[in-house]
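Researcher: Good morning. I'm working through a list of sequences from a screen, and I'd like to move beyond sequence-only analysis. For each chain I'm collecting a predicted structure so we can compare shapes side by side. This is the next one on the list. No need for commentary yet; just the structure.
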Amino acid sequence: MSPAWPTEPDELISLQVALGGETPGPWNPPAEYLTGGAWICFPRGLSGPGSPGDQAWAAAVVMDGPRIVARHLIEGRTPSAYIPGLLALRLGPLLEVVVRRLVPAPDVLLLDATGRDHPRRCGLATHLGAVLDQPTVGVTHRPLNASGAWPADEPGATSPLVIGTEQVATWLRTRPGTRPLVVHPGWRTDLDSACQIVSASLGRHRTPEPLRRARQAARRARAD
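Model: Good morning. Structure tokens for this chain:
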């Protein structure tokens, strides 16, 4: 187990507090870059918080525009059940392994995880980015602790998600008539660059393509 991924809740909380207070240099997306996505799925029928040792399939892809230029899959076991606010205990080690095996590596990574929308301002998107020393953006269906009204029903419309007076994430409408996504700045990304990265990675679907393709790959591996 990597020391980057504590095995006890108290240890992870201390690390999250430390990482949440860091201010790494921002990454400004260049004109061209590779976007990655990583996803983990579990056996069908598994419900609730799960248990240590649950079987899991992790997939990661790298896309250059509409093309997949790298893909990797692993099967493993989770070291922990799910504990709210401590997702890294369950998913962090597997995600690190599968992303590190991508060749070429992505310039920025999309994850189904939060960033500053977190009790200690360090969701898994931020934590994994710090471990990999790689820019990251979280994309989720709903906020964790933040709140805010939905944006206008127009593609590209945004509205803030706040905790207290701090904006920690953004609602982003990717398709009209569907629920907006939550975009979370992670490691070395801010609100503007995170929305730019997610918008640039959209295809015909509501979910950014790198995440959608990684989810498909993980589910295919599970089916096999």
